[in-house]
Amino acid sequence: MEYRKLGRSGMYVSEIAYGNWLTHGSQIEDDTAAQCVHAALDAGISTFDTADAYAETRAEAALGLALSGVRRESVEILTKVYFPTGPGKNDRGLSRKHIIEAIHGSLRRLKTDYVDLYQAHRFDYETPLEETMQAFADIVRAGKAHYIGVSEWTVDEIRSAAALAKELNIELVSNQPQYNMLWRVVEPEIIPACEELGIGQIVWSPLAQGVLTGKYSPGKGAPSGSRATDQNGGKDTMARWLGDDVLTTVQRLRPLAASVGLQLGTLALAWVLQNPNVSTAVVGASKPEQIKENAKAAGLTLENALLKEIDEILEPVIERDPRKVDSCHSRP
């Protein structure tokens, strides 16, 4: 495993992070979740990403259980706040009330006194940004989070948050966007701005929900037990990738991966890590052996000629429109 600094902070994160969206507390039982977490640790993965809303808070609890007995200082625990965690009108969003209550719930479930990174899971259009950033600053000063970050914010929102963070003498160190060979909407505007501001990318869906592993074939149904058959959110999030045009194009990458001795998924992860603004790529796994394969992408260098061939093959199905970042938002 290789490690990189998270943005301009002094904290290292593993190039491959283990995330438990759609798996812990949903697709797999706690004992399997623990096996995956320990397989990640064995592979040198030290960074674990979750969120309070995953599996209605059960994902955080499963991760906390799986990490019990692990030296706290040897791992980086990342979680998020914004999406509903209960039925009340204040059980969501980025108000001071919800943020302060949410961090206490996350720490309880994760069985820890602090998280290494606390992230705003989306932008809250109903709460003043000043209120949100002040609450985050208070959490950092109370020692309940070391750093703060955001996820799926637009470039203007990131710039505004970074300016407020500077005024409050705290560091906004990360952005967590969807980014992979097929989905490149952060390249035109967000990544250049983040490079300027010292913000690193924590990439989610680097395998396009598994499509870039090549296991989904055009004209065929999804394999039994795959994410595309998951009724708890996985199937819906994958819909954009399952057209025959995308699947057929992805299959054309197989010879390229084979030419450099890599599995297709390992090539896709290594591709993401070629971007110097990427601090870590978050992968999910429902089986320990998947973790071991994903970890092989760390430290790989892909030649420019290979990167060019990848672009030429995928160009017809690549999404680059920076306005599509908004498609991930939940506007009122």
TrEMBL record:
Keywords: NADP, Oxidoreductase
CDD domains recorded: Aldo_ket_red_shaker-like
Residues annotated as signal peptide: none
Region (Disordered): 216-235
Residues of the NADP-dependent oxidoreductase domain: 15-314
Single annotated GO MF: oxidoreductase activity
Gene3D superfamilies: NADP-dependent oxidoreductase domain (3.20.20.100)
GO cellular component, one term: cytosol
Chain segments annotated as transmembrane: none
UniProt KW Signal keyword: no
Family: Belongs to the shaker potassium channel beta subunit family.
Protein name: Aryl-alcohol dehydrogenase-like predicted oxidoreductase
High-level lineage: Bacteria, Bacillati, Actinomycetota, Actinomycetes, Micrococcales
